[in-house]
Structures are given as structure tokens and as C-alpha cells.
Amino acid sequence: MDFSPQTRLRLLGLLPLIFFFAQAVHYYRINELGHMLWMCNIGNLILALGLLFDKPIVVRLSAIWMIPGLVVWFIYVVLAWGVFLTSTLAHVGGLAVAMIALKWYRMDRGAWRYAFGWYLVVQLISRFITPPAFNVNLAHTVATGWERTFQSYWSFWLVLTAVGAAVLWVSGMILWVIWRPKVAETLATGEL
Fold first, then answer.
1. What is the pTM of this model?
2. What is the 3-state composition of the chain as percent helix, strand, coil, each rounded to the nearest 5?
3. Where are the alpha helices (DSSP H) in 74-133?
């Protein structure tokens, strides 16, 4: 069967959807579904929806999040707990799918703003619907190990949010350098 490139790209969206549901099964089995709202996990769902419904900005914001997500996952999960199949699929697999998708969709310079806005929304949702003990997206308390540096959660949150914005901007710029819009797209949008 010969599929068009557009159809193949949409079918690619099934992979991050599988990664997301694999993580959901894992967290369901250990009775910790609240962890599904971590940006890395929800990023796979968003990537899948962006690909399945052909929404480039959604694919881009998810791709931007995959870079810091991979680093944070490696430091706080892999080094502390080891490698788990579903977690590896969600982080490494999600990043691989996002990079393949960006070959088609390319990157725009302003996509980091959407990624940052998405972060604020998901963090707020995490604060209201996840158990404080999980501290999903650091939405409840100062991260372990940073209590001496930050005397209040809100000072921690302010610094975390500023650093997060900077990291998303850098991630977006790296992806933009690698996958700039094609010349015709650049002329049409006026973005250089």
C-alpha cells in the first residue's frame, strides 16, 4: 500500500499515542495515574494529536518540550531509578518522532511561546488535580534538594518559570536552526 507523505505523517502520530497509553498502563498498575500530567507524558499525547490532526504548531510546541524533558528524565529518573521500557519510549521515542515530524513541518521562531503557554496551563492543571505528594511539574512544592536555596514555593516557582522560559527559547532556537522553514514558507510568512 502506497500512502502519501501527509498520510504517513498522520500515521506516525500513532506512535506517541502508543507511548502515552503505555505510560498510562504503567502508572495505572502502580496506582499513580497523577504522574500522567508530567510535561513529558502529556507531550506525547499532544504530539500525537498534532500529527493526527495535522496541526503544525502543536507538533512544534511538543517537539520543543521533548529536549528539556529528555534531560530532566535522564537526571531525575534514569540516574535515580534506572531505565524502564515505557518511560524510555515516552522520552526517547517521543523525541525521535518529534524530530521526524519536524523534517516535514519545520520550525518557526515563535513556537517557544506556545510551548511556554502550554507549560503554564499544564502546571496550573497539575496544581489543581494531582496529589501534592507527586509534585507533578513542580506545581506544589519546592523540588527536593532546593529547600535551602528557596525559602518559599513562590520564589522557587518564579525562578523555575523564568529558567523554563529561557530553556524553551533555547530549545526552540536550536530546532529552528536545524529545521528552518523552507524559502517559500519564509517568504510567505515574512519570517527570517
1. 0.91
2. 75, 0, 25
3. 79-81, 85-88, 94-105, 111-129
CB atoms under 10 Å from CB of 28, counted, come to 12
All 3 cell numbers of residue 93? 521515542
Task: Give per-residue burial for 82-96: e unless 16+ CB within 10 Å, then b.
Answer: eeeebbebbbbbbbe
Residue position matching grid coordinates 514555593: 153
User: 39-52 and 14-29 are packed helices; what angle lies between their axes, rounded to 10 degrees?
Assistant: 150
Query: From CA 109, how far away is CA 191, in angstroms rounded?
Result: 8
pLDDT 10s digits, 115-156: 999 999 999 999 999 999 999 999 999 999 999 999 999 999
For the chain, what's the residue count?
Answer: 192
* Sequence-ordered list of residues with C-beta below 8 angstroms from that of 173, at least 6 positions apart, any chain: 109, 112
